[in-house]
Amino acid sequence: MAGRRRRAAAAAPPQTPDAKAPRFVPCRPRLALLLPPLLAVRLYGALASPITDCDEAFNYWEPLHYLLYGRGLQTWEYSPVFGLRSYAYLALHAAFARLASSVLRSKVSVFLAVRCALGCTSAVLEARLAARTCAWASGEAGVALWALLLSSAGMWHAAVALLPSSFAMLCVLAAWTAWMDASLPALPAGSPPADRSVRKAYGAAIFWVAAGCLLGWPFLCVLAAPL
Hints:
Largest sheet: none
Low-confidence stretches: 21-25
Helix content: 55-70%
Radius of gyration: 26 Å
Strand content: under 5%
Shape: globular
Order of helices and strands: HHHHHHHHHH
Distance between the termini: 67 Å
Number of helices: 10
């Protein structure tokens, strides 16, 4: 009897899982879902957050006012005697501010337009990084990153600040997103990235690191070391 039971058990067909059983679907929200809340928070920060750093007011807003209207206070760092600061970083923002001043008559409106542009740029880069994290790591990791960026008080202030360190932060967001774009294809260990899209993504990551170091904050190279 025991031998017959063993043979019957061995001859029994393997059980197949029920086709109607629910399957786990990873959570990978799209960019269109991640971007609107970030835009709302960053625009609110541009309109409501104060300037907490005197360096931002006198070393960046005042020189930007000088580039736009021909007058403004000058700190000793911009003096030709010392020449410690360059106008290259401000020139990027002055181009947009001059375009805004041609449409908006009030200086306060131009000021808010520049801050809103900074906030929108940060929101787009943050949403792209979170969406890429969903594809590169997991949906849970991407959503957690998105929630931290959305609720961070530091990001609320830094995203709209006219400071080289904030520009370097935006470059880090763009560089890490490009690096994850390049890391998505499965390449053999030790093989060069022969695919054109992979080379382009690596080139974009290097470009943003270089831009952040030259125009923003030179210590950005420490954050870019893992790239």
